[in-house]
Amino acid sequence: MNIMELLLAHAPALIVAIPLLGAFLTPLISRVSEKGRNIFAILIVGITAFFVFLLASDVLANGPVTYVFGSTAATVQQSTVIRILFEIDALSIFMAIVGIILSFVAVLYSYAFMHRETGQDKYYTLLLLMTTGMLGMMLTGDLFNFFVFLEITSIASAALVAFWTNKAKAVEAGFKYIVISTIGALFVLFAIALLYGQYDALNMAKIAQSIGISGFTFIDKIALVLLIAALAMKGGLAPMHMWLPDAYGRAPASVSLLLVGATQASLYGVFRIVFTVYGDVISLPSVSIGWILVLLGLITMLIGVIMAIIQTDFKRLIAYAACAELGYMALAVGTGLTIVANADPTITIESAPFAMKAITGGLFHVINDALDVGLLFLVAGAVYYATKETSLNKLGGLARNMKYTTVFFIIGLLAVSGLPPFNGFASKLLIYESTYQLNPILSIVAILASILLLAIFVKVLHAVFLGPALPKFANVSEVPKSMLMAMAVIAGIIIVFGLFPNVIVTHLIEPAANALVNNGAYLQWLTGGL
Amino acid sequence: MIDMILETFETGTGYWHPLVWVASFIIIFLIVYIVRGFGQKDYKKGTGQTQAFLSGNKEYDKQLMHVQASNLYWGWTEALKWVIDVLKKMHTGNVSDYVLWFVVVMGVLLVFVGLM
Questions:
Q1: Which H helix or E strand runs over A288?
Q2: What 3-state DSSP class applies to A66?
């Protein structure tokens, strides 16, 4: 076994271990050199990104990878042994790619964005812990382990939301976030306890198999509801989204970017529970979980855009727009599920092409939303860095002084509104067409929400960047290069994804969509002798 | 790989080719630019030609003319005031209410899924 094969074999563990170790080393390095600490954080996330892409190449070429922590045998003398499994399929690795891109851009951006702040050792430690938790949630195949990573992400996120402790609203937002996260996590834990009590297992594949055999008991239903409700709240679906504008709006811009990834990790949890753990029973005609997701998606889109249009705070406005974008994902995946859970039992997800298109569109929108909304948050951070102002009523004429930032904002604006030829258009086109097959009203609402998103960000473009030069911003200059570079990385990916959607969908999104709907491959380790 | 890059993106009932769109956009831009070249060339910068006509009123200082964010889409927000008021009322900013919404959704889901 050469060194690359060895690294590949242990990549699942290293993806979580490297940022975790990096997090604890950060305060020590901070004592030696502050600049060294910042470079160390970038390096740690860069190495983690290398392992994510290395593992992605393997998973996408050869199918799911299972990594065992602890005993290699499932049972010893008829007793279940203590061990944790990471199960990485195309969906997990797709989400990990989204997470690591956001994390890398966040640390790169932080280099200059946070350099005036005190407590940066804590900041970078928490940022790396958040990355650890987020990636762990995406890679684990164990429900209790998922809960542990959910908690790591939540605690690190709450501390980062309240990072600017001199601002009362930031502390308030952090408090709200930890309350919501704790309550959500408590219900997740309760649901896991119900499933563990019934099936004596914590592994997702094992529980999925047991639910299939038992045939969806009342306890299973309660656990399903608790998991969906709690993770949907953490995933920012309305009407449980209210923590999201507070947290996104008050956190430093680099943290808001990473919060997008953390929110999507929770949404991933919803999809994983519905399609994998409950995969064998969820497509029963009587189980309309698909419609629940569709309704939550619709409400989220509408509330998100209507609330965004009346906002006058730059970041809070983007936060509501981000909320609306989350609605698209729930709508698309719910549509896919609803088409399959049709009264006609002969319909399967494979035989319903629009179901697959809807899920593909929904997953494609996960990465597009992360990039588009992420870029807009970074632009808002750049404007705050340069002007110390976030009120849209007090800003204006900045295009004269911040030319590159303005260009990045326009790219983000066009992409998030779903205008061609940017990435948001390709995923939204898939969503419009597939939701139309279920009910034309769904696609009408989705298109209307996109039009409103365009109107919202045109308002921001006018209010912040256009108009006459304001004397108070006469000395404002462009932000440092590392911040511009971070924005350029995201803008570049947006343009590439927009111009070549076929390549991304074929190589990354469709395998992820297939992994989501075919839980058979995910369950294979049960018969694979591990 | 090149074939895949140039391939049309199938979306179910439709298709989308961004490169064709970009090429069309460039061609249309060039045509518009050429047509623009045929326009009158008697524009004089810094003369009365460039001043805004505000029904005969004097133009204020440009810094005072900037339309602020909260003044944009006034008609739209006024027409939808009844919806916006309901939504504003819903967003109390009180974390107890956030938890209440979670409990409400969970309760509805329990009834919905439990009865199936």
A1: none
A2: strand
pLDDT digits (tens, 9 = 90+) for A379-398: 999 999 999 999 999 999 99
User: Which of B76, B47, B12 lies closest to A357, judged by CA?
Assistant: B12
Q: How far is A79 from chain B (nearest CA, A)?
A: 33
Task: Tell me the one-letter amino acid at A107.
Answer: V
Residue B114: closest C-alpha in chain A:
A221
Closest CB to B4: pick one of A393, A426, A503: A503
Separation of alpha carbons A431 and A105, rounded Å: 28
- Taking the C-alpha atoms of residue A371 and residue A375, their distance in angstroms, rounded to an integer, is 6
Nearest alpha-carbon partner for A490 in A377, A361, A324: A377
Residue with tokens 């010893």: A76
What the block records as the tokens of A233 is 């709240």
Q: Domain segments of chain A: what residues?
A: 283-523
Q: CA nearest B1 in A: which residue?
A: A503
CA nearest to A353 within chain B: B12
Contacts with B12 from chain A: Cβ below 8 Å: 353-354, 357, 430, 433-434, 437
- Per the rule left: phi > 0, alpha: psi between -120 and 50, beta: everything else, A236 is left
Q: Is pLDDT at A412 greater than 80 in this prediction?
A: yes
Q: Can you give the pTM of this predicted structure? A: 0.93
**Cα separation, A449 vs A362, whole angstroms:** 15
Give the closest of B4, B7, B63 to A471, CB-based.
B63
As to burial, measured by CB atoms within 10 angstroms (0-12 exposed, 13-18 middle, 19+ buried), residue A234 is: buried
Domain ranges of chain B: 1-36, 78-116
Please name which of A234, A379, A264, A398 lies closest in space to residue A318, comparing C-alpha atoms: A379
Count the Cβ atoms, other than its own, within 10 Å of residue A453. Answer: 26
Closest to A362 in 3D by CA, of A516, A133, A522:
A516
The tens digit of pLDDT for each residue in A356-383 reads: 899 999 999 999 999 999 999 999 999 9
A396 contacts chain B (CB < 8 A):
yes
Residue B72 contacts residue A463 (beta carbons within 8 Å):
yes
Give yes or no for A472 touching B (CB within 8 A).
no
Positive or negative: CA dihedral A283, A287, A288, A292: negative
Helix (H, G, I), strand (E, B) or coil at A84: strand
